[in-house]
Structures are given as structure tokens and as C-alpha cells.
Amino acid sequence: MLSTILLRQLTDQVQELHATVDTQLRPLDTARLNYKTSTASWSILECLEHLNRYSRYYNEELAKALPSQEQSCNPHEVGFTWLGRKSYDIVRPDNGKQHKTINHMNPAGSQLGPEVLHEFLRHQQHLLALLTAATGTNLNRKAVRVEFFRLLKLRVGEALQFVVAHEQRHVQQALRVVQAAQHQLSAPVLVV
Predict the structure, then answer these.
(1) Pairwise CA distance, residues 112 & 59, whole Å
(2) Angle between helices 156-186 and 115-133 (to 10 degrees)
(3) Dihedral (C-alpha) 108, 32, 164, 52: value to the nearest 10 degrees?
(4) CA angle at residue 121 from 120 to 124, to 5 degrees?
(5) Is 192 inside any structural domain?
(6) From CA 101, how far away is CA 103, in angstroms rounded?
(7) pLDDT above 60 for 40
(8) Do residues 139 and 160 lie in contact, with contact meaning Cβ atoms separated by under 8 Å?
(9) Where does the record place a coiled coil (predicted)?
(10) Residue 173 dihedral angles phi and psi, to the nearest 5°
């Protein structure tokens, strides 16, 4: 895909994620934000805290990878390495397979409040700025260290696609929890 088209698509997707969380999740009460469909599942806040943990790492890595001064790289085809394709395929929102997360990225059992939502929205604003900064940059340059094994690097374009797809996946998960919570918390209770 052409770099300019990719950056535009990713920008649109991040703006949509921001709007979804701001309008559909932020207004929810604490009970709904912490609702779990089972003891093994994540609440809405745990889904977003998981993404915050990734954003703390990848937003910083992307900021380091992007040049501080505007570049003049022409639009170019953005490709995938084997590692980039594998990473992206695992987190794609339409990949229904569940994957175990690494321990330090797993927020299960954390005591979380609405500040998680605000942090997520700040990370989205930062990511939008990074996408703007990526304009004119060679997105095929290997410059973003992989979180779980920092000797490996992703290309800038791969890392951006990975981050956005991962966020889409878990925001969709959070929205499914919203639906389950609305059904469960608003169901009539039969008192005998």
C-alpha cells in the first residue's frame, strides 16, 4: 500500500477509536466499566489498561524512530517483513483466535478507575501526532524495537499498523463487554 494512503487510513482509524472510547465508554459508570463476563475475562478498564501499557512502550519507540525534522521521502509502497506480518496477523481485529498476553502487559486483577480512559485518550492524541510526523518518512525503515524481545525490530509502517490493529481489537472487546454488561446489569431480577 502507498505510504500516504496507509497513513491516512491509520489516522482515520485512530480518530474513530478516540471517538468511540470518548462517546461510548467514557460516560459509563464504574460498575459497567469494571463488569466482567467471567472471572477469566477482562473488564472494559482492563482492556484499555492493556492498551495503555502497550502505548507507553510503542508510542515512545515510534517517537524515537521518527525523525525530529521533516523528511522529504516520496510516497512509497509500504511492505511487511515476516515478523511484521506475523505480529500484525495475530492482533488483527478479525482474527478470532485468542492469544495469551505476556504477564507484565496483563492487567487482570488490577484496581482501575476512570483515569484509564483518560490515559487511553491521551495516548490516541499522541499517536495521531506520531502519524502526522511519519508523513514523508521512509516507513520501510527498521527502527522500532519489539516490546517482548528488544533485539528484534519492526519497520516503522509495520509498527504503526500493529499498534492500531491491536487497539481496534481490544476496543472491540471492550464494546462486547459493554453489551454484556447492559444485558446483565439491566436484566430484571426475580425475587421469590
Answers:
(1) 22
(2) 150
(3) -50
(4) 90
(5) no
(6) 6
(7) yes
(8) yes
(9) none
(10) -60, -45
Write out the three cell numbers for 71: 523528511
Q: Which residue stretches of 78-155 are H helix?
A: 82-91, 115-133
Q: What is the pLDDT of residue 183?
A: 73
Structural domain includes residue 48: yes
Cα 37 from Cα 42, distance rounded (Å):
8
Count of helices and strands (H, E) across the chain: 6, 2
In a domain, 191, yes or no: no
Average pLDDT taken over every residue of the chain: 90
CA distance 14 to 160: 11
Domain that holds residue 31: 3-186
Number of structural domains the chain divides into = 1
Entry field: residues in the chain:
192
Arithmetic mean of pLDDT, 86-99:
89
Q: The whole model's pTM is what? A: 0.91
26: its cell numbers: 467514557
Which one-letter amino acid corresponds to residue 150? Answer: R
